[in-house]
Specification:
With 456 residues, this protein is of the alpha/beta class. Helices cover 25% and strands 25% of the residues.
Length: 456
């Protein structure tokens, strides 16, 4: 029995929908043929000449009309394993009384009430995040829009042994035999869950999609008006790159047909890395904030028998991500932003950096929890300074949430800081204020910053 047949059988046995199995099978064929999804620098040109969201000029009524037919979708499949979590990252507090989920719900509720629109909020959960997320959302009893659920499930697929591409077995923890297929699964998951049809039948035309750990990507009524007026089937939000943005996806223009294409770091050949990371050449990075015309998406899926044909991303891992000696595996993935090349007439728009506030590390979390950002009545996270300080916490002592919270029971004031570098095992007392540039050196022993200290 071939590796593909074994994988298909395993997916069937746990109830993965057939269309999702078909998409996996299409990617598997590419993998067998040695496809890596690489996008060569010689085959693309830089993206340039974009409009900026700040120049949108539409009437309030035009924007409200667009908001009335727009749904908000948040990708909520991440566990935050890099921060030592085994549950949805969005359950973390960003304020003592507010989690990521609470902030997202507050943002949507504010627009519903101020604009008098329904505006559905839907979370794409993974099989690992669904139960905890739904439990946390239970307190928001009026969140669901009539006829629509508040979540749908991302599909799953087997991890494949790197040596023969058969599904890996891991009796020590069978759950590790499975992985999500990347956020490119959004389109398949919307279709097979019935959510796509349900949204269209309920009168919704557009969707704004973003990562749930990016609280900067609040639903924006002006952007809703812009996308509806553009007539585009698909749009990507991009930001200007800085030297700190050398990693991550960026949109390029394919020379052969002029289409916009998303190039992820994993799709960049080593010999192209320097050119790809040059912010003067490739000026924009992809925020993973997307806009979709749901009707066009439905017709495209129907025309392609449920397989959009997104580029393959081969992700080489170990079956147990915490054990580098465990069996080497391949995870088949795709990026939802890669659909920019699928839709004729897809476009991009430049947005301010304020729409990109992802939390990938405890460095990011410290900033978001600090007084550098305020939470308004509309639940938007707004910077209180012109430039956020740079934070670099010693990964040996601050990389997991447990270690972070133990050493920072109260986040210090950073509103007057330019940078905070912590080397070594430091514990912070309450009421600490950081000003200017501060470095705490590693002394080789556990150290403390006393309560009320002013550093800098």
């Amino acid at each position: 029995m071939s590796g593909l047949v074994k994988a298909q059988q395993r997916m069937t046995d746990v109830g993965v929908p057939q269309h999702a199995i078909d998409v996996f099978s299409s990617f598997y064929a590419q993998l067998e043929q040695g496809e890596t999804g690489m996008i060569r620098e010689s085959d693309v040109e830089p993206l340039d000449g974009l409009d900026h969201a700040g120049s949108i000029e539409l009437s309030d009524e035009e924007c409200r009309a667009a908001a009335a037919v727009t749904a908000v979708i948040k990708l909520n499949g991440g566990l935050g394993t890099s921060m030592g979590l085994d549950r949805a990252k969005t359950l973390l507090p960003v304020r003592p009384d507010l989690t990521f989920l609470d902030v997202i719900v507050g943002q949507v509720r504010h627009l519903r009430e101020s604009l008098d629109v329904r505006m559905p909020l839907l979370f794409m959960n993974s099989f690992r995040t669904r139960d905890d997320t739904l439990s946390a959302l239970a307190k928001h009893g009026d969140l669901a829009v009539e006829g629509l659920p508040i979540d749908f499930l991302q599909n799953r697929e087997p991890k494949l042994r790197a040596d023969d591409l058969t599904p890996v077995d891991w009796p020590a923890d069978p759950s590790l035999e499975w992985c999500p297929p990347g956020h490119g699964d959004l389109y398949t998951a919307l279709e097979v869950s019935g959510i796509l049809d349900a949204l269209i039948d309920a009168g919704f035309r557009y969707a704004t999609v973003s990562n749930a750990d990016n609280l900067g990507a609040a639903p924006d009524v002006a952007m809703m008006g812009w996308f509806a007026a553009s007539g585009a089937p698909y749009a990507a939000e991009v930001c200007r790159r800085t030297p700190a943005d050398v990693k991550g996806g960026h949109i390029v223009v394919r020379k052969s047909d002029g289409r916009l294409v998303l190039r992820e770091t994993a799709q960049t050949a080593a010999e192209d890395a320097e050119a790809a990371s040059d912010p003067e050449r490739h000026r924009y990075f992809h925020t993973n904030n997307l806009w979709l015309d749901l009707r066009v998406m439905k017709s495209s899926l129907e025309q392609r028998d449920g397989i959009l044909g997104l580029p393959l991303i081969r992700n080489d891992k170990t079956v147990d991500p915490t054990d580098p000696t465990s069996t080497k595996v391949v995870q088949i993935e795709s990026a939802m932003g890669a659909a920019v090349e699928v839709f004729e007439g897809a476009t991009a728009i430049e947005v301010d950096r304020s729409r990109f506030l992802p939390v990938k590390t405890t460095n990011d979390l410290l900033l978001l929890r600090s007084d550098v950002y305020g939470v308004g009545e509309d639940f938007r996270m707004r910077a209180q300074v012109d430039s956020a300080p740079l934070v670099d916490l010693d990964r040996r002592f601050f990389s997991t949430i447990a270690d972070f919270d133990a050493r920072l029971p109260e986040v210090p004031s950073l509103v007057d800081a330019r940078s905070l570098t912590v080397a070594g095992d430091w514990r912070f007392g309450r009421g600490v204020v950081v000003q200017g540039d501060v470095t705490l050196e590693d002394t080789g022993a556990a150290e403390s910053v006393p309560a009320g200290a002013r550093l800098g």
